[in-house]
Specification:
The structure holds two protein chains of two kinds.
Chain A (H helix, E strand, L loop, with lengths): L8 E6 L5 H7 L4 H8 L1 E4 L8 H6 L5 E7 L2 E3 H13 E7 H6 L11 H9 L16 E4 L2 E4 L3 E6 L9 E3 L6 H17 L66 H4 L17 H12 L10 H12 L5 H5 L19
Parallel strand pairs in A: 1-2, 1-3, 3-5, 5-9
Antiparallel strand pairs in A: 4-8, 6-7
Chain B lengths: L13 E6 L3 H4 L4 H11 L5 E7 L5 H14 L3 E6 L2 H14 L7 E5 L1 H5 L5 H19 L8 E4 L4 E4 L3 H12 L4 E4 L14 E2 L4 E2 H14 L3 E4 L2 E9 L2 E8 L14 H5 L3 E4 L7 E4 L1 E2 L11 E2 L5 H5 L4 H5 L14 E7 L1 E4 L3 E3 L16 E3 H7 L21 E8 L14 H16 L2 E6 L9 H10 L3 E4 L2 E5 L11 E7 L4 E7 L1 E6 L1 E3 L3 H8 L26 E3 L9 H21 L1 E4 L4 E3 L19 E4 L4 E4 L9 H5 L5 E3 L4 H11 L11 H5 L6
Parallel strand pairs in B: 1-2, 1-3, 3-4, 6-7, 6-18, 7-10, 18-29, 20-27, 21-22, 21-27, 22-23
Antiparallel strand pairs in B: 5-30, 8-9, 11-12, 12-17, 13-14, 15-16, 19-28, 24-25, 25-26, 31-34, 32-33
Helix pairs in contact in B: 2-6, 3-4, 6-18, 7-8, 7-16, 13-14
Classes of the chains: A alpha/beta, B alpha/beta.
């Protein structure tokens, strides 16, 4: 792809994100030197001083590889997504926020107004007596001040622009990032074939259980526990012990980091290939193994109550099952009254 | 990661056929409009022809489809008519005749799901269109499938040696095929062997049953395993591998002559709770009844002096055979048999009348259960057929018979136990005949259907039996009025005269409900079938397939399927046998290829699905760390497909692509008549 011996151009940008993806990328260790050898940085606000105007000045397609992390939360995020799409040959939705919406997209369970209210009005550490809320334009003696518009609904990168590849994870594991970079580098420098467009890179093909060392058996779960409620028995599948683990519904690649240390998988690597809705998948799976086995003649209301009791040991099912995938799920968002 | 499958639809040539079903569908749905709409609006989805016809299922209707397949080169067929349960096979066969793989045909139910449940013609027509659009989108994703052919082992296992199992075993054995009959008790015969007379003909139960029992015992094609239980069932239709526990009898069947000397010499008397319903005694080494088949006794180790205290051995000492037939060292034996089909005829259990304390059973001596009364009036029973009170001598002067005890009662069983009315009439007749007592029958409704049953009722009426319509409130020995002392009083509202009555009697017989065996659920699970909410085994179709189950190769007969009388039980036993014989004759069976399968490379071995299969088709391969589905056991129910969190299980005919395509089709038009895509677009504001 590179011509005239010039090095290919690399960009990494953060939209609505925490910066963890950048840290994970820099955490590839000595391989960062290879990255520096192979690429010229074109845009990387976290580590180098570029301006948006620099990017705007590039010819279209100037950037060979753009790792775009963060969800689309504001008009600025969306603007940058369109800009970087135009300037990049390969645009990667990098990390859970860009790929699936991640934590920012949990705001899709509520409304824009409620988010602003919480942040600017109801927050106990806040002093905002006149109830000032951010405005897109504010007149000031020096002229008009502008802020990006805060959207009602958080979107994934591929819901606003065309995306070439996805790299899952919150954040993606560094060894997986390096593997992805190697694939792209091989394509750019040696002409190796790129994977088909739309491929999920840096993840496996099966569920986290494949990488999980805990012993698994047939499952019947009479109730669920929150992590602080029990100390799990070592060596035994957490789900079987009643700790919600999204491992069975989550694609592997992370090495089952969380279950290895007694914390159920939160599902940050997203669904398996071909699965449309990760939350719905874990929901039906858990519903199948809830054990309130009845017998003929049991009172149906009693059975329903027992099912309800078991289910209500999961206090926030939407937040738990769609922890990372809300924006990309079939649900996309909750229908709330004050949407605007 | 889009929900919209990239459909192969443009390549397919789809025919849509809309059935009028006389006025069943056309009365509510504008079928002509639906057909025209489909031809016009679904053309870009591959529909090349859309027709409506009076009766698609008629020969002419089928020929229409066949002709179109041949002449128009159809590659897919959608029939919008009744439920696939009724006519899917018809239309699949029609496609097959025309050279199209039968599984490329999709049925859309616009009768059960549209015309029969809606009245608004416009909305019903719109819904029919939406369903057809779903069918068209779906059928494009269908794959040609081939049925799974499995060979049928000619040996049949019959579980339960009551009259249903006996009949089934004899029918199959008589037609020349081997049968293995397993019975839990020491003898076959079941409940019928305990009865004295049978309604409405009053012939002796033993006289008509024992010849059949003997026939089973001596039939060269029947292997009889009494005092045995099925432990485990592996495999699938055509080749089940069944593990059976032969409980130790402590009697060697090879040498025992059945002389009965051991029984005579045994010093221990035990109340016989099973066969004599607690009214009589048996020995610790015993035969259930004189005509028991097989004739070999068993030793009841719980009561045997030798087993309890280490000495006695009277039975062994007096055994006249050489070598001795009593073997205290005998152990349970586990055997495995291979069979092609299984008939479950495990019968029923009697409702425990103690559960209705106000009827006094277990507290008032002269309150009897129906089974106790059967033994009481049985010529071979504990009283030699004398109807007497518990003191063993006094003949009752007045007898009350209470119907529906534990049946038709929302507190116990809401169903009707079917046999109690006729059984109670039989009791009334027998009491009259044996004692001349006054007899009162307390009934809710008199149910005497079937041949000669109502005639029997008329006969008992003519004999002077009193009938009081009303549910009995209480059976008590607390006398309130003169004449009640020393009697049992039946307190009842006589609903025909609208008054409370207290009727003093000497004896009360409770016509107890028939209930499923207490281990029915466990047995059902073992054999991969299901129980209804009441606990009876569920048949494949309540009317048209009453002895088959949803599991291929497992049939049911008799009261295990639901309460029924002897003629119906015998008929079911024979019916189940006929189904099995038909299977054996075919030699092999073509199984529906609608099956779930695990994509092994996607399975992480999370084991969520492992205990969900109602047909025991799922097993875990420890060596490979993945789950497997046995295609011959799988019935394609889809439970595991839905449960798999990784989407690693796929169901033919129910793939994600098929289901999502169908949903896309359903959403193609909205009900306000807006153009296609409107409903999908309605969702879009949420996205922007």
């Amino acid at each position: 792809m590179s011509t005239n011996g010039a090095k290919p151009k690399l960009a990494m940008y953060w939209a609505a994100s925490c910066g963890g993806c950048e840290i994970a990328t820099l955490n590839i260790g000595e391989h960062i030197l290879t990255v520096d050898q192979v690429f010229d940085l074109a845009f990387f606000p976290c580590i180098a001083d570029f301006k948006v105007s620099d990017v705007e000045g590039y010819p279209d397609g100037y950037i060979d590889l753009c790792l775009f992390n963060g969800a689309i939360r504001s008009s600025e995020n969306e603007h940058m997504a369109h800009l970087l799409r135009r300037k990049s040959k390969i645009l990667v939705a990098f990390g859970s926020c860009a790929y699936e919406g991640c934590i920012p997209a949990l705001a899709n369970l509520t409304s824009r107004q409620a988010v602003l209210r919480t942040v600017y009005l109801d927050n106990p550490s806040l002093d905002n007596p006149s109830g000032v809320l951010p405005q897109t334009t504010t007149p000031a003696p020096e002229g008009e001040l502008t802020l990006p518009a805060f959207y009602h609904t958080v979107k994934t990168l591929d819901q606003v622009v065309d995306v070439d590849y996805y790299v899952p994870g919150c954040p993606p594991e560094s060894h997986q990032i390096w593997a992805v970079l190697q694939t792209v580098v091989a394509a750019l420098t040696e002409g190796a074939p790129l994977p088909p467009k739309g491929t999920i890179l840096g993840a496996g093909q099966v569920a986290v259980c494949e990488e999980c060392p805990l012993a698994r058996h047939e499952k019947t779960i009479p109730r669920f526990y929150r992590p602080y409620e029990i100390v799990p028995k070592p060596g035994l599948c957490l789900l079987e012990q009643g700790l919600v683990c999204l491992g069975p519904a989550t694609v592997c690649g992370c090495g089952a980091l969380c279950p290895r240390v007694g914390m159920g998988c939160r599902g940050c690597y997203g669904p398996l290939p071909g699965v449309v809705d990760q939350g719905a998948r874990i929901l039906t799976a858990l519903a199948s193994v809830i054990d309130v086995t009845g017998k003929p003649g049991d009172n149906e209301e009693e059975l329903a109550r027992r099912v309800q009791d078991a289910v209500s040991t999961i206090p926030d099912p939407a937040g738990l099952f769609y922890y990372f995938s809300m924006a990309h799920s079939l649900l996309h968002r909750a229908r709330v009254a004050d949407n605007q | 990661m889009s929900t919209a499958p990239s459909s192969p639809k443009s390549q397919e040539r789809i025919g849509v056929y809309v059935c009028h079903c006389g006025s069943n569908i056309a009365g509510v749905v504008d079928v002509k409009d639906v057909a025209q709409w489909a031809g016009r609006e679904l053309a870009e989805d591959g529909v090349v022809i859309a027709r409506d016809y009076q009766f698609m299922c008629s020969n002419l209707g089928q020929e229409l489809i066949e002709a179109d397949i041949k002449e128009q080169g159809l590659t897919r067929v959608v029939v919008a008519a009744c439920s696939p349960h009724l006519h899917e096979a018809t239309f699949r066969t029609a496609c097959q005749r025309a050279g199209l793989n039968p599984y490329l045909c999709e049925m859309v139910s616009i009768r059960e799901q549209v015309s029969w449940v809606h009245t608004d013609r416009d909305l019903a027509t719109a819904k029919a269109k939406a369903l057809i659009a779903g069918g068209v989108e779906r059928v494009a994703w269908h794959e040609p499938l081939e049925p799974l052919i499995v060979p049928i082992n000619p040996t049949t296992l019959v579980v339960g040696g009551g009259i249903a199992g006996i009949q089934a075993a004899l029918e199959i054995a008589d037609s020349g095929y081997p049968v293995i009959l397993v019975e839990r008790e020491p003898s076959i015969g079941g409940h019928m062997a305990q009865f004295d007379k049978t309604f409405p003909t009053l012939d002796c139960a033993a006289c008509i049953l024992t010849p059949k029992m003997v026939a089973v015992g001596s039939h060269p094609n029947i292997t009889l395993l009494t005092y045995s239980e099925v432990e485990r069932v592996d495999g699938y239709v055509g080749s089940f591998l069944v593990t059976i526990r032969k409980k130790a009898r402590y009697v060697n069947a090879e040498t025992c002559t059945g002389c009965g000397l051991c029984i005579e010499k045994c010093p221990v008397r035990v109340v016989d709770e099973v066969f004599e319903a607690g009214l009589g005694y048996r020995k610790a080494v015993y035969r259930s009844f004189p005509q028991a088949v097989p004739k070999y006794p068993v030793i009841d180790t719980e009561h045997c002096t030798y087993f309890q205290r280490g000495k006695c051995k009277a039975c062994q000492i007096f055994c006249p055979t050489q070598p001795k037939s009593i073997n205290f060292e005998q152990k349970d034996e586990i055997i495995q048999v291979e069979v092609g089909n299984i008939i479950l005829a495990t019968g029923y259990e009697l409702f425990d009348c103690r559960r209705i304390p106000q009827y006094g059973y277990g507290r008032l001596a002269n309150v009897y259960t129906s089974l106790e009364f059967e033994r009481l009036c049985n010529a071979a029973g504990p009283t030699g057929g004398e109807v007497v009170l518990r003191d063993g001598v006094t003949k009752p002067k007045t007898v009350g018979i209470i119907h529906c005890v534990g049946s038709r009662d929302s507190k116990y069983n809401s169903y009707c136990s079917v046999i109690c009315c006729m059984q109670s009439l039989k009791f009334a007749h027998l009491v009259k005949e044996r004692t001349g007592a006054e007899v009162y029958n307390f009934y809710i409704d008199m149910r005497t259907p079937f041949k000669d049953y109502d005639e029997f009722y008329q006969k008992v009426l003519a004999e002077g039996v009193h009938f009081v319509r009303g549910r009995v409130a209480e059976v008590t020995d607390a006398a309130r009025h003169p004449g009640e002392e020393g009697k049992i009083i039946v307190q009842v509202e006589d609903t025909l005269i609208g008054r409370q009555r207290r009727i003093p009697v000497d004896m009360v017989i409770l016509s107890a409900a028939l209930e499923p065996r207490r281990d029915a659920q466990e047995v059902a699970h073992k054999f991969g079938i299901a129980c209804s909410a009441n606990g009876w085994f569920i048949e494949k179709h309540p009317k048209l397939d009453p002895v088959a189950t949803m599991t291929e190769g497992i049939f049911i007969a008799g009261c295990a399927q639901g309460p029924k009388d002897i003629p119906a039980t015998v008929a079911q036993g024979a019916a189940a046998a006929a189904r099995v014989i038909g299977r054996i004759h075919q030699g092999h069976l073509a199984l529906e290829p609608v099956r779930a399968s695990v994509i092994a490379e996607r399975c992480s071995g999370c084991r969520i699905c492992n205990n969900l299969c109602p047909f025991n088709a799922i097993s875990f391969r420890e060596d490979l760390g993945v789950t497997e589905i046995n295609p011959a056991l799988c019935q394609g129910c889809g439970t595991c497909v839905a449960a798999c969190p990784a989407g690693a299980i796929t169901g033919t005919q129910f793939s994600n692509e098929q289901v999502f395509a169908q949903i896309e089709g359903l959403l193609m038009l909205d009900f306000s008549g807006a153009p296609r895509g409107a409903a999908v677009r309605m969702l879009e504001p949420a996205l922007s």
